[in-house]
Write a structure and sequence with these properties.
The chain is α+β, with helices and mostly antiparallel strands and 710 residues long. It contains 21 helices and 20 strands. The chain has a five-stranded antiparallel sheet, with helices on both faces. Strands 14-20-19-16-17 form a five-stranded mixed sheet, with no helix packed on it. A three-stranded mixed sheet has the order 2-1-5, with helices on one face. A hairpin with a 5-residue loop joins strand 19 and strand 20. The termini are far apart. In the C-terminal section; belongs to the transpeptidase family. It is an enzyme of class 2 (transferase).
Length: 710
């Protein structure tokens, strides 16, 4: 093929553009086309009356639906696309968004140079096309404007019949009277065909270049201009040579029109065209699908997801799942507990994997929490003033009615501190505490923290302490966020502005800090220094669920691994499967220190504790270290009475009877009035919620009352 040099080109020859403006468009019979031109000329000739008739004809044009449907988009916190959804008829069509001005300039230079000036039909282009048809005896170029192309795309009309062309002209004239040029260009950018079920510049840019069209190279912009003229025939993945020829013609025209320089055009022509169709973005795909279901009709759904952290989290989950095989999946929730914003949420290891039920969102699935609820029982016991981290307790075979739980390794440690019992996740000590606190109260406290137990029967039993109820992974993260926030919870949300602090605390900040301090002392599985993250693992009955939940001073995360169908995974333990993923996740986050102890925290060894706190004794049992009062008048708490509800923000007057002075009054385990010679004291109001008031006399005898403040 001989390449002729175009006028004005100084460097190596480039393919000359077709100056006619016709680029593989409509092929109509030249005689019929001439009739159309003649009819338009006749209208102009007859002047005013026919002009008015012509205007009325245009005004009576029945317009198609101009609100072109586009797919719903789910966006990350930085505005980037996480996942897009097809429109109802299965087409990929997205709102144009920001488009590189270079593409617009190339498009008008190639398709419609007088786009900004004509009223929908370009008489000069039509006369030129007609003259070329007469001169060459065949159709050389068409006279379609961008507005006429929009008219055809809106109605999906034919291109080869003169009746269809006349309809496009009439509709184009009407569109120009109802829409601005920007609105017409927007319609073209939405509707331009790119082959198969892909329409619009934005979908095509994501498909071929894997990026938004807001910044394009000259070669990329030219390809997006060239493809709609013959989208199937020029598909780069099937006919790359034809795609390149068409693209280079657009580049040559752009250079001739001064849109780009000759050097830029030559460099762009040297670039290969893409030959692989890329997948549309699918960041947090299950979360995105859930949000679309929850927001029917929404076209843009904004989220708090951090795309960088989300991709890293997805990679961690996929790697951990592959290492286990055996149809094992995994899930993860990460949030900023200061704001309640969810930053990453991975519902499955591989959302397209059928054998591991990748379509199930395991962040929302109800599963056994294993031992991950134990910290809340300890928090209540500390808050009630019936225990302290250094309190001694017996880890020995114990029957609770007909139930005799065992430790995970079927061994018993004898006398241990509650600190050791929680770090080692012993079962007997926590069930003893739960029996004292009460399973109903435990369930109510968990509910206040955002953890909703699903149980068999209406009344919770002691077994909830060891995982005998169902919760979701997102709820576990919510509950641990309350621990991280000093006992007061916050709703976690993936949508901006939806998180709200919970009104009623789970327990006081001293108890929350004590639990946090204990959980931060466990040795991390990855060799990370202890003390940075407070964490707890859990394994459900039969090795069905492996969990790890933790937090630092800014973030809270929960990890689950197992099989979505609930079948056991032999050898699966939370500490071995889920905990490494948890700490790998914290390794990619900023290190934010855990909070210091509140000023009122009692941080002393066991020997310095008040006598009743040195060794745990359940109701009806005497503490081994507490001497019984010799006086017949035993110590009693008289006001407020046990179970009282007070509506006050003022200080509370606490009164006791009996015992021997001096008296010490505690609020939620923290000293509130010391060395009182009378069995009464004015105690600072601890704020709304449950509180336990305790009085201890000189002999170590104690009495307490649980109250609720409004």
């Amino acid at each position: 093929m001989v390449t002729k040099r175009c006028k004005g080109w100084r460097k190596r020859p480039l393919p000359c553009p077709d100056r006619s403006g016709y680029h593989g468009g409509d092929m109509i019979n030249s005689r019929r086309f001439s009739r159309i031109v003649f009819a338009l000329a006749a209208v102009a000739f007859f002047g005013g009356g026919l002009r008015d008739a012509f205007d009325g004809w245009v005004d009576r044009t029945e317009l198609p639906v101009l609100d072109v449907a586009v797919g719903t988009e789910v966006l990350a916190r930085d505005g980037s696309l996480m996942r897009a959804f097809q429109v109802a008829d299965g087409r990929w069509r997205l709102a144009p968004g920001a488009v590189d001005p270079l593409l617009i300039k190339m498009l008008t230079a190639w398709e419609d140079r007088r786009f900004e000036d004509h009223a929908g039909v370009d008489p000069m282009a039509i006369l030129r096309a007609a003259g070329q048809a007469v001169t060459h005896g065949r159709i050389v170029s068409g006279g379609s404007t961008l507005t006429m192309q929009v008219a055809r795309l809106l109605e999906e009309g034919p291109t080869g019949e003169w009746q269809g062309k006349l309809r496009q002209m009439r509709l184009a004239l009407a569109l120009e009277r109802h829409l601005s040029k920007a609105q017409i260009m927007d319609l073209y950018l939405r509707l331009a065909p790119y082959g198969a079920n892909v329409e619009g510049v934005r979908a095509a840019s994501l498909l071929w270049f894997g990026k938004e069209p807001r910044r394009l190279t000259p070669a990329q912009a030219a390809l997006l201009v060239a493809l709609p003229q013959s989208p199937e025939r020029r598909r780069p993945d099937r006919r790359p040579e034809l795609a390149k020829i068409a693209r280079d013609r657009v580049l040559a025209t752009a250079a001739e029109a001064g849109v780009i320089s000759q050097g830029d055009a030559e460099a762009a022509m040297a670039e290969p065209v893409p030959t692989i169709r890329r997948a549309f973005p699918s960041v947090a795909p299950l979360l995105a699908a859930r949000l679309v279901r929850a927001n029917p009709g929404a076209l843009r759904i904004e989220t708090t997801i951090d795309p960088r952290i989300q991709r890293r989290a997805e990679a961690l989950i996929a790697k951990a799942s592959r290492a286990q095989g055996q149809k094992v999946s995994a899930a993860l929730v990460l949030a900023d507990h200061r704001s309640g914003e969810i930053l990453a949420e991975v519902g499955t290891a591989e959302w397209t994997a059928g054998q591991s039920a990748g379509f199930i969102d395991m962040t929302q699935a109800v599963r056994s929490p294993g031992s991950t609820l134990k910290p809340f029982v300890y928090g209540l016991a500390f808050d009630d003033g019936i225990a302290h981290p250094e309190t001694l307790i017996e880890d020995r075979p114990t029957a609770f009615g007909s139930w005799q739980p065992q430790n995970f390794d079927n061994k018993f440690r004898g006398t241990v501190t509650l600190r050791q019992a929680l770090i080692w996740s012993l079962n007997i000590p926590v069930v003893k505490l739960a029996q004292e606190v009460g399973p109903v109260r435990i369930a109510q406290t968990l509910e206040r923290g955002g953890i909703h137990l699903r149980m068999q029967g209406a009344t919770p039993g002691l077994a909830i302490t060891l995982g005998g109820a169902g919760v979701t992974l997102e709820e576990l993260a919510t509950g641990y966020a309350a621990l991280a926030r000093g006992g007061t919870g916050i709703t976690l949300s993936v949508q901006p502005g939806q998180s709200q602090p919970m009104l009623t605390p789970m327990f006081g900040r001293v108890a929350a800090w004590q639990v946090t301090n204990i959980m931060s002392q466990g040795l991390p599985p990855t060799g990370t220094p202890s003390g940075r993250v407070a964490w707890k693992t859990g394994t459900s009955y039969g090795n069905r669920d492996a969990l790890a939940v933790g937090y630092n001073g800014g973030y809270v995360a929960a990890v689950w691994m197992g099989r979505p169908d609930g079948t056991p995974v032999p050898g699966a333990f939370g500490g071995e499967l889920a905990a490494p993923v948890l700490f790998d996740l914290f390794d990619i986050l900023p290190v934010i220190a855990l909070p210091p102890p509140p000023p009122e925290t009692l941080t002393v060894p066991n020997a310095a504790l008040p006598l009743p706190l040195r060794r745990f004794a359940q109701a009806g049992q005497a503490s081994a270290t507490a001497a019984r009062p010799s006086a017949p008048d035993a110590l009693q708490f008289t006001f407020p009475p046990d179970g009282a509800e007070l509506d006050t923000t003022a200080a509370i007057t606490a009164k006791a009877r009996g015992g021997r002075a001096p008296y010490t009054f505690l609020v939620n385990g923290a000293p509130a009035a010391v060395a009182q010679m009378q069995p009464s004291a004015s105690i600072a109001n601890p704020g709304p919620g449950f509180a336990r008031l305790t009085v201890i006399d000189a002999d170590g005898a104690s009495a307490s009352a649980a109250i609720r403040l409004h």
